[in-house]
Design a protein that fits this description.
Layout lengths: L1 H28 L7 E7 L2 E8 L6 E5 L13 H4 L4 E5 L19 H14 L5 E6 L2 H11 L4 E7 L10 H12 L3 H8 L4 H9 L10 H11 L4 H29 L3 E6 L7 H10 L4 E5 L6 H15 L3
Parallel strand pairs: 3-4, 3-5, 5-6, 6-7, 7-8
Antiparallel strand pairs: 1-2, 2-4
Helix pairs in contact: 3-4, 5-6, 7-8
């Protein structure tokens, strides 16, 4: 009995010392993390869901998602930048956890969407912000910037074009007839963008880090697309995208005139928006910092650490 007690006592003391040392050192060695909170705001009768993290008094960054995703696409980025920003990522009406009113009750065009997002940021009391824009986020963010340039602290373009030349030609061939004349025949190719196969393809095409791709991304997106009536919503958005193309010259003029602090982070293998979109942005914004990644349309799925580090570095001033 005495022997057992003598053997365990030093071991217990050693374990206790190690535990105390680990706990005492934790604040110095562990990175500070910010919990992500999930809220919703009533915006003119439409519930807009959003994710938020970071100090309430930190500079605001508004993350604007693309099709067919939601704020879910920013799940890996938010914890990486929330220590320096108040990060807010909304779901657009018809996407994610936000309301999806019937098409007759809400105009699913980008002007209306931008108005909803403007009311959303005003509801949150955001006087200024940096805009992170991916895909659909480009048309939404550019409208926000044009309406209130005084609120824009900076811009981040991630696979979002403001140039006709930035479109892949095979994608234009599918959209152009639909934009010219909406009919069941011209709509048929666009319905293909709502299928599970295409949703997954959007994530996998051009990606070189397949081991980092999580099926959660396309499964979550497809669950939203498959909701009753959501096909009509998405087809309205896709048809009204033609208004964005018509607005490109106005957006280009804004960028050339205002020269906002800009970071360009781009998946170079994007099957929708080519590197000519990047060249166009660089010509308009010669002081913009550009980082190209060996990634596809949803570069955050595989390169969130690198993009997060680029954001913190680019806007550290």
């Amino acid at each position: 009995m005495t022997r057992t007690s003598l053997t365990l006592s030093p071991l217990s003391a050693l374990l206790g010392a190690l535990a105390s040392a680990s706990i005492a050192g934790a604040p110095e060695t562990w990175p500070e993390t910010w919990p992500v909170s999930y809220y919703s705001a009533d915006i003119n009768g439409v519930s807009v869901a959003y994710r938020e993290a970071g100090p309430a008094d930190a500079p605001a960054m508004l993350l604007l998602h693309g099709f067919p995703s939601s704020s879910h696409m920013f799940r890996d980025l938010i914890p990486r930048i929330a220590g320096s920003y108040r990060v807010i990522a909304p779901d657009y009406p018809g996407f994610g956890q936000s309301d999806a009113p019937a098409a007759e009750d809400y105009s699913y065009d980008f002007s209306t969407l931008a108005e909803t997002m403007t009311a959303f940021v005003e509801n949150l009391g955001l006087a200024d912000y940096t805009l992170y824009m991916q895909d659909y986020g480009g048309p939404v963010g550019m409208r926000l910037a044009l309406a209130h340039p005084e609120r824009v602290s900076g811009l981040i373009f991630q696979n979002a074009t403001v140039h006709v030349e930035g479109w892949a030609s095979d994608v234009v061939e599918q959209f152009a007839p639909y934009w010219a004349e909406r009919s069941p025949e011209t709509e048929a190719p666009l319905r293909g963008f709502l299928s599970p196969e295409t949703t997954r393809w959007q994530y996998e095409q051009g990606s070189t880090r397949r081991d980092r791709l999580s099926a959660d991304a396309w499964i979550s997106d497809q669950a939203g697309l498959d909701r009753p009536g959501n096909d009509a919503i998405q087809l309205d958005y896709l048809w009204n995208y033609r208004d964005n193309v018509a607005s490109y010259p106005v957006w280009q003029a804004y960028l050339a005139r205002e020269q906002p602090d800009t970071l360009i982070v781009w998946g170079a293998n994007d099957p929708f928006f080519t590197t000519q979109a990047v060249t166009g942005l660089q010509e308009l914004l010669p002081e913009a910092r550009t980082l190209m990644f060996d990634a596809g349309h949803f570069a955050l799925e595989t390169h969130a650490p690198e993009i997060g580090a680029a954001i913190l570095d680019a806007f550290s001033h």
